[in-house]
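A.,

Following up on our hallway conversation. Structure tokens first:
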């Protein structure tokens, strides 16, 4: 945060935590639409389509005893109907045939920032809102989030502009503070500027959400730490610009190798974190093997490496313990880090778990 003394007055700009707090003051319960179109898994396809059309709704939440068990969006209808109706033209369909099962939900007590990260990371447009009993209480759309996000950003912009005017009017010579203030405007970014993937700030929110959801539903997930082998030697030999290009290639290659439900973040430096929801250790290893193989096929020259080309090492931690003794997702990240160190110690260009 930038703070400047103007006479007896302290003039300051909001730091990141203050901006997030401002965003989270806009509660999910205030944003969500309470009138949710709900149906049971046994509801016929015809009824689902007719109700969505009549009421002008873009999604239907499938509930069982008031708890969301699936969600149907217009995207599901287009995809499934295109496939199924051509194969089974006379079959009578029900909602359970084409809903997205185990939909990603958000607690009604959550804030805007968490909703923003979840919809961005999971690439979804509708979030069923649940209460403490996991019962459906509303629906949050991408439009709701976008409008609230714009409102929060506009409030922050007005505050920053007001503070900037005071600084410019009374302390024209303090240009260094103004430069830092401009950098603060970028602090809400959730994307790493170089690699084009989620940054560490977004990662922490997403992993916390995934971990809480896994504990509640007793569903496994994996955390994977990836690290470029001999990267300092690569930079020293080829230059930092080539190093940046190598990191960008790694990000693209990894994203092309993982599943649509997996999420990739820059953890720091040449380290990446891969989040694999709903994944046991064996399936996690298969995903990471594809990542290593894709980079090997790219054969990016690295004469300072004993392999002769750019490689990565990986450490995997699988979260499968749901006995109630939970110390948070950080313990599993630490385990992944230990396994990454093990992979480095055993010769690099390998996976340890």
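Then the amino acids I'd put at each of the 353 positions:
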């Amino acid at each position: 945060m930038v703070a400047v003394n103007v006479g007896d007055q302290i003039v300051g700009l909001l730091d990141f935590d203050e901006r997030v707090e401002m965003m989270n003051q806009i509660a999910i319960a205030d944003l969500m639409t309470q009138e949710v179109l709900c149906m049971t898994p046994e509801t016929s396809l015809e009824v689902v389509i007719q109700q969505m059309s009549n009421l002008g709704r873009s999604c239907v939440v499938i509930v069982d005893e008031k708890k969301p068990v699936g969600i149907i969006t217009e995207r599901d209808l287009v995809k499934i109907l295109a496939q199924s109706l051509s194969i089974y033209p006379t079959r009578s369909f029900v909602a359970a045939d084409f809903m997205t099962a185990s939909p990603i939900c958000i607690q009604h007590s959550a804030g805007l920032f968490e909703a923003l990260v979840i919809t961005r990371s999971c690439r979804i447009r509708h979030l069923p809102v649940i209460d403490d009993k996991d019962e459906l209480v509303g629906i949050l759309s991408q439009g709701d989030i976008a409008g609230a996000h714009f409102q929060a950003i506009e409030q922050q912009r007005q505050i920053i502009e007001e503070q900037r005017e005071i600084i410019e009017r009374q302390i024209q010579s303090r240009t260094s503070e103004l430069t830092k203030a401009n950098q603060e405007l970028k602090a809400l970014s959730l994307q790493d500027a170089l690699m084009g993937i989620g940054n560490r700030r977004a990662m922490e929110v997403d992993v916390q959400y995934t971990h809480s959801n896994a504990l509640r539903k007793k569903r496994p997930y994996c955390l994977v730490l990836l690290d470029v082998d001999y990267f300092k030697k690569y930079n020293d030999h080829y230059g930092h610009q080539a190093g940046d290009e190598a990191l960008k290639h790694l990000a693209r290659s990894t994203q092309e190798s993982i599943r649509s439900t997996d999420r990739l973040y820059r953890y720091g430096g040449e380290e990446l974190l891969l989040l694999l929801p709903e994944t046991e250790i064996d399936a996690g290893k298969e995903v990471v093997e594809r990542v290593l193989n894709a980079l090997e096929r790219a054969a990016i020259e690295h004469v300072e490496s004993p392999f002769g080309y750019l490689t990565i090492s990986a450490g995997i931690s699988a979260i499968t313990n749901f006995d109630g003794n939970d110390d948070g997702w950080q313990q599993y990240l630490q385990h992944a880090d230990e396994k990454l160190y093990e992979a480095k110690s055993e010769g690099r260009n390998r996976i340890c778990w």
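Residues 28-145 form a domain with the CBS-domain fold (CATH 3.10.580.10). Curious whether your intuition agrees with the design.

B.
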